[in-house]
């Protein structure tokens, strides 16, 4: 049984999501919406504080949303790289003021609304859950390629 199957059987488990944004109204609205969807939410306006949350392996972060541009030395791109070190198969969601591609496979959203961020997070968490769940196909039902 893999980790996701164990989580599915344990109905008390909440995936932890770290959200980092310098706009307190955006941050609070997103945090409320995610809590209503049964996420354990850690919200911060500081890249440095978010970095410490990501490094706390006693309370691991399952998903990350961050604003790309933040004051201080640690921005959203650095947070996404740190997140990627512990979750190489998962994409962080990063909000930017201008469209930009991510060579690391992160989901980059141009100046998104909270609703767009929620839809994006719902999509990547569901997609990851499906990709981690073993197929129910029996060996004799797998199509053969000639």
Written overview of the protein:
There is one protein chain. The chain has a single domain, classed as Rossmann fold (3-Layer(aba) Sandwich). Strand 3, helix 4 and strand 4 form a beta-alpha-beta unit. The relative contact order is 0.15. The longest helix has 19 residues, at 114-132. Helix 2 (24-36) packs across helix 5 and helix 3 (47-55) packs parallel to helix 4. Helices cover 40% and strands 16% of the residues. By secondary structure, the protein is an alpha/beta fold. The chain contains 5 helices and 5 strands; from the N terminus they run H-E-H-E-H-E-H-E-E-H. The radius of gyration is 17 Å and the shape is globular. A 5-stranded parallel sheet has the order 2-1-3-4-5, sandwiched between helices. The chain has helices spanning 3-9, 24-36, 47-55, 76-86, 114-132, and strands at residues 16-20, 40-44, 63-67, 93-96, 107-110. GO terms for molecular function: DNA binding. This is Response regulator with CheY-like receiver, AAA-type ATPase, and DNA-binding domains. InterPro entries: CheY-like_superfamily, Sig_transdc_resp-reg_receiver. Residues 16-146 form the Response regulatory domain. Keywords: DNA-binding.
Task: List descriptors.
alpha/beta, single chain, 146 residues, disordered C terminus, Rossmann fold
Topology:
Layout: H1 3-9, E1 16-20, H2 24-36, E2 40-44, H3 47-55, E3 63-67, H4 76-86, E4 93-96, E5 107-110, H5 114-132
Helix pairs in contact: 2-5, 3-4
GO biological process, one term: phosphorelay signal transduction system
Keywords: DNA-binding
Protein name: Response regulator with CheY-like receiver, AAA-type ATPase, and DNA-binding domains
